[in-house]
Amino acid sequence: MGKFVAGKFLQYVIVIILMVTLNFLLPRVMPGNPLVFLAGEDVGFMSSAEKEAILEKHGLNDSIVQQYGTYLKNIFTGEFGFSYQQKRPIIELLKERLPWTILLSGLGLVLSTIIGVLFGTISAWKRGTKTDVNLLTMFMFLSAMPSFWVGMILVSVFSVQLGWLPVFGAESAWSNLKGMDRFIDIVKHLILPLTTLVLISVTSTFMIMRYSMLNVLGEDYIMIAKAKGVKEKVIRYKHAMRNALLPVATVFMLSLGFTLGGATVIETVFAYPGVGRLMFESVLSRDYPLIQATFLIITFSVVIANFLADLIYPFLDPKVGRHNG
Amino acid sequence: MDKQKWKHYWRVLSSNKLGLFGVSLLVIFLCIALFAPFIAPFDPTERVGSPFMKPNGVFLLGTNDIGQDIFSELLYGTRVSLLIGVIAALISIILGCLIGVIAGYFSGKVDSFLMRLVDLVLVIPFLPLMILLAAFIGPSFWNIVLVISLISWASPARVIRSQVLTLKTKGYVEAARSIGTGVGAILTRHILPGVIPIALSQFVLAASHSILIEASLSFLGLGDPFTKSWGTILYYAQARGAFITDAWIWWVLPPGLLITTLVISFAFTGYSLEEILNPRLRKEQ
C-alpha cells in the first residue's frame, strides 16, 4: 500500500510542477509584450521609468533560471502577486472566494454521487424494462445539455417567472442577516446553482453504477442469496449495491476535476462569488496574473482531493491493500 | 473492408433504432450547415431590424441586442459548432491513435511512460486549463480547436491502447512478425485496420464532447468573435440579460436545445457504432 500511495504522490507532484511551469512560461513565451501579461493593458500609457520598475519588480531582468526560482518560491509561500484590475493582493481574493467554491462543488459532488448510485442501482435491477430505458435516456439527455444553459433556464423559470428563488449571488447584499436567517438566505441562493451542478455531473456516476451493478448481479453469490430466499431488498442494497460501489469510488475521483471545471461555468451564470467566477471576471478584464492564480488554485484543489481519495481507496477495496502491501 | 461486411453493418445499423435516429439527425444538421445561406432569411451579420424585437412573421425568433435576426444566426451557428466539434475530434483521435498504438505495441518503458502521461492529463481540470490557454493565445477559430484537441486525446488513447494489446496477440500479427515483417508494415497493415473501427466510435463521442466544450468556452467569452457559434449567441444573451426577460423563450432556449440535440445525435451514433463494431457487446444486449 505504501508503494501505491508513493507512486500516486509522485504523479501528483509532477502534475503540479508541470502546471506551475506552464503558468511560468505562458506570459514569457507568448507573442506580445510580457509586460502586458504581468501588469495589464495600462502598460501602454506608462513612462519607460515605470516600465523599468515593473521589470525590476518581477525580476524580468534576471536570467530565466533565476526568474523560475523566484516564481516557485512565491507560489509555495502563497505570494501570487497583485491583481491590477481589482487593486488587491491575489491571495486575499482567493481566500474570500475559495469557501464558496468548496461549498458548491463539495455538496454537488456528494449529491450527484448519491443520486447517481441510487438510480444506477434501480436501473440495473430493472434491466431491459421500461424503467431502465427511460432512466438511461433521461441521463443521456442530461449529459448532453450545456451546463450554463441549464442554469440560465432554471433562473428564467424559477427566479424570474415564478419568483421563488433569488436570481444571483451567494447571499443577499447589504442585508446584514444574522444566524438562522443568514443560513436560510445562503441555502436559498445555493439551490439553483447546486441543482444545475448535480444535473450536469450525475450521469457519469449513474452509468458506472449501472454497469458495475449489472456485473455484480451476474455473480454466483447473488444467485445463492436468491435461492436461499433472501428478501429482494436485502439482496439489492446489502449484497449487490455495496459490492458495486467500488468503481464508483474511482469515478468520484475523476469527476473532481469535472465538477470543479463545471462549477467555473455555473458560478459565472449565477454570479456566485467562487473561484470559478473570479476566473471568469479575470478573463473578461484580461487580468492575466489573476487568471493564472485561479487556475493554479483549482488545479491544487483537484490534485489534493485526488490524493485524499487515493489514501481512502485501499480501505474501501481490500484487493488494492493486499496486492501492494 | 469488403462489400459484404458493409452490407452486414448496414443491416445491424438499420435494426438499431437509436443509431438510425442519431445518424438521421446528423444528416439534417449537416444539410442545415451546408445550405445555411439558402435557408436563412437574413444575413446574420447585418442589422436587419430594431434591437430586442419579439418573434413575428418576419423575424421568426425575434432580433438580438443590435437588431440581427436570431433565427438566421442559429442556422449559420450550426456551421461553427459542427466544424469545431468535428475538427477538434479529428485531431484528438489522430493524436490518441498515435499514442495508443505506440504504447500498446511497444509495451515496456515506452508504454508505462505514455500511460503515465495519459493519467496526468486526465487529472488536470480541463475546463480551467482551456480557459487559461484560450485567454493567453487569444480567441480564434483555430486556437479553440487546438486547445480542445490538446486536452481531449487522452481517453481515446487509453481505449485504443487496450485494443492494440488484444490485436498484438492475434495469430496473424504473430505470424507476420515471425516471418520478419518490419514494424512499420505490421503497424500499418495489421494493427491499424483493427484499430480503425474503435477509433471511429471514439471519434464520434469525442465530437460530442468537443461541441459541449466549445459551447462553454464561447459562453465564457473565449470564442471567435467573428464566427458566432451557438455558445457565442448564448454569451450575448447572458451579457444583455435576456434570461431575466421574456426573451429567454426565443433567445436562450433555442440555441441550447440545438446544442443538446447535436450532442445527443453524436452520442447516439457513437454508442450504436460501438455496439455494431463490437459483436461481443451486441450479443450481450
TrEMBL record, chain A:
Which residue numbers delimit the ABC transmembrane type-1 domain? 98-309
Please tell me where this protein is predominantly located. membrane
Q: Which UniProt keywords apply?
A: Cell membrane, Membrane, Transmembrane, Transmembrane helix, Transport
Q: Tell me what topology the record assigns in the membrane.
A: Multi-pass membrane protein
* Family assignment from sequence similarity: Belongs to the binding-protein-dependent transport system permease family.
Q: Does the keyword Cell membrane apply?
A: yes
Q: Any stretches that span the bilayer, and where are they?
A: 9-26, 102-123, 135-158, 190-209, 244-270, 290-313
Q: What is this protein called?
A: Peptide/nickel transport system permease protein
Question: Which source organism?
Answer: Peribacillus huizhouensis
User: What Pfam family is a match, any one?
Assistant: BPD_transp_1
Instruction: Give the location in the cell.
Output: Cell membrane
Entry-linked PROSITE patterns = ABC_TM1
Keyword match Nucleotide-binding: no
Q: Which SUPFAM superfamilies match?
A: MetI-like
TrEMBL record, chain B:
What topology does it adopt in the membrane? Answer: Multi-pass membrane protein
Q: Does the keyword Transmembrane helix apply?
A: yes
Which CDD domains does its entry note?
Answer: TM_PBP2
Sequence intervals crossing the membrane:
20-40, 82-106, 113-135, 141-160, 191-213, 248-273
Q: Where is the ABC transmembrane type-1 domain?
A: 78-270
Q: Which UniProt keywords apply?
A: Cell membrane, Membrane, Transmembrane, Transmembrane helix, Transport
What superkingdom heads the lineage? Answer: Bacteria
Q: Which Pfam families match?
A: BPD_transp_1, OppC_N
UniProt-listed InterPro entries = BP-dependent_transpt_permease (IPR050366), MetI-like (IPR000515), MetI-like_sf (IPR035906), OppC_N (IPR025966)
Protein location: Cell membrane
- Which SUPFAM superfamilies does the protein's record reference? MetI-like (SSF161098)
- Per its UniProt record, what PANTHER family does this chain match? D,D-DIPEPTIDE TRANSPORT SYSTEM PERMEASE PROTEIN DDPC-RELATED, OLIGOPEPTIDE TRANSPORT SYSTEM PERMEASE PROTEIN APPC
Family indicated by similarity: Belongs to the binding-protein-dependent transport system permease family.
- Name of the protein: ABC-type dipeptide/oligopeptide/nickel transport system permease subunit
Which source organism?
Peribacillus huizhouensis
Q: What does the record give as the organism's lineage? A: Bacteria, Bacillati, Bacillota, Bacilli, Bacillales
